[in-house]
Every structure is written in C-alpha cells, then in structure tokens.
Amino acid sequence: MRDARIRFDTRSEFFTDLKTRVDAYFDTAGLSRRGDTRMFVKTAIILAWCVASVTLFLALDVGLLGAALFGVALGLGGAGVGMSIMHDGNHKAYSDGRQLNQLMSWTLDLLGSSSYIWNHKHNVQHHTYPNVVGSDDDVDLGPLARLAPESPRYALHRFQHLYMWPLYGLITIKWHWIDDFYQLARGRIGEHAFPRPRGKDALVFWGGKVLFFGWILVLPLLFKPTAVALTFYFVAQVVQGLVLAVTFQMAHCVEEAAYFETPADGVPVTLDFARHQLATTIDFATTNKLATWYMGGLNFQAVHHLFPRICHVHYPVISRIVEDTARDHSVPYSPTPSLKSALRSHYRWLKALGTQDDVVAPARPPAVPAPLSAGPAASAPAVAA
Ligand SMILES: [Zn+2]
After folding, report:
1. How far is the C-alpha of 189 from the C-alpha of 312, rounded, in Å?
2. 88 Cα: distance to centroid of ligand 1 (angstroms)
3. 356 partner at 20 to 30 Å CA-CA among 10, 106, 160, 366?
4. Could you report the per-residue pLDDT of 177-215, keeping only the tens digit for each?
5. Pick from 291, 319, 325, 287: which is nearest to 305 by CA?
6. Which three-class secondary structure state does DSSP give residue 132?
7. How many Cβ atoms from other residues are within 10 Å of residue 127's Cβ?
8. CA of 127 to the centre of ligand 1 (A)
9. How far apart are CA 377 and CA 368, in angstroms?
10. Rounded mean pLDDT of 96-123?
C-alpha cells in the first residue's frame, strides 16, 4: 500500500537524462534488459551448490562438525539464491518470460520464506520508501535497535554495534517461523495493509512451507541424530541470515546514507525520486567481481533502486552511466570502495546511533514543490528540511 503522505517526482532532468542514456546503451548494444546466459549459468551453479550441500549432508556419515560445515555451505548457497536468483525473479528482471520470473521468485518459498510477502515488503514498501522512517520496515526494528537518527534511542542501543551481528543471523529463522504467519494473519506489514494470498498464491505459500520444513528438518531428523540434524538447520540459517542482512545493511544503514522522516502533520511531501534513491542507497565494492557475481548486484543497490526491472548482470555498465550522468547534473554518487569499508561504515553507524542522541546523517535531497514539478528538482525550494 502506498503512503499518501509521500509522493515521488520521477520527471527530473537528471532522471530523464539518465533513462535516455541507459536506453541508448541497450538499443545501441542490441541487448535485452533482462537476464542472459550469464544468469542461467549462475542459477545452475548456485542451485547445484545448494542441492549438493543437502545431498552430501544426508548421504555422508557426519557428526556435529560435518553438519556445521555443510550448514555453512548451504547457508552461503541459500543467500546466493536469494540475492542472485529470487531477487531478480521477484522484480521480473530475470527474464522477459512471466513464468520464468515467477519460477525464480518461488525459489524463496523453497528456502522457507514467502515470495508473496517478500514482494509486498521489498518491491512495494522498501523500494518505494528506502530509509523513510515510518514507511520502510527495514529501518524500523522497534526498541530492538536504532537504525535511523529519527528513531528514539534507548539504553540498550549502546551495545547494538555488538549484539546486532548475531541477531542478523536469526533473521531468516524469524521470517519462516514467525513473520510470514504473523503478517499473513494480520494482513499487514508494519502499518501497511496487503491483500492476503489467494488461489495459486496461497498454494505456493503453504506448499512452500511444507516443502521447506520437509527437506530442511523432517528429512534430516529421519536419517540423522537430532543434534546433527538441528545443527545443520541452525548453522545454515544463521549463515544465510547474516549474509543477507549485512548485505542489505551495507547499502542502507551506513554513514553515507541519508534518511527521511514520514511527515507527521499530514501534509504530503513530494520528493525527487532519483535523488532520493541515490541519497538513501549506497553502492559498494563495485569493482569486486566475485562480490558482484555472488551478491547479484546488491552491491549495486543504488543502481538497482533506480532500475529494478533491469537484470543485475548489467549493473556494472549501468553504474558507469549513472556516474557520468550524476556528475553532469551535480548529483552525488560515490560508491563505498570495498566490502571492508562498507562493513566498517555499518559498524560505526550502528555505534554512533546507539551512543549519541544527535547523530547527523548526510543531508537529504530537498523536497520539490507539489504538484509535481517538471523542472529540475535541484533548483526547487526545499519544503522539507
Ligand atoms: Zn530489490
């Protein structure tokens, strides 16, 4: 559900110019905006990795250490499925074929979490309102952690730069045991209502749960000692959750990212779409080929937020077009250079938010006047500081 208090202007000169240049790139190169052979090869490798991790664990006579090692392998593979296969499928960027996108999106159900609920949480809420406090569920963890300067600080937060890391590891367990069922029962994600799944969507929701708990828990418990089976499950989920959560945090919850607070006075605010996305979402490690292959372009998350229907295999090239266009329009776009620097930035930001009341995030782009302006948003007077 859209938040009526915030509107986005997608007609700025910057974004119009950027889209023209990106269109020209695809037209000149004669390329599809969706995935190509690279995606099929990657999908085969990652899925084979996951199947091999489970099959070998079940087939071999392993103890607790072996279960943990196969759990690490499955967790890394599962995170790869989420970032490099499901994410593109759910955005309809994997292929021009609707069914293939759907099929790839359902890989999330096979991994235990509902692709239907993910679609509403990620594609609708997160993508529309990144780092908008009050509208983006990802920056609202309630009293558990303070992830934005606009959120209240509690005494517990003093240690959040330490305790959040193990909690990240529990995120997929929380999704598949609690959140999916809770959100389905409420028909809401946070404050935002969503239609409950019906027909085929309901079948995939419940069928996915049965299949997932079948292969991840029932099957191992039938053939392995309970401690070995549970170790495999737990380690796999912790590794997967940690990789997924930290990857998203390195793009949004860092010193370089801006935040915006949903206006409380009921007066709608209009934001420049492209500037908002680039200010609240930070690319990182863009020259790291292995990270780019494995993370499915989530290290190009600012580019992804601007062009979610373009498959991630194109992002390294699109990123250079964004860089050139941003420079020409004096729009800030400077990716964090490495994984290490992005991780450190997230750690320092968690610590600053947990220990100081008045933390200053980078300046947010000014709002543009409503009704939507067709002119350059940068020259528009700020109506929301
Ligand atoms: Zn996305």
Report:
1. 27
2. 8
3. 366
4. 999 999 999 988 877 788 899 999 999 999 999 999 999
5. 319
6. strand
7. 16
8. 6
9. 6
10. 93
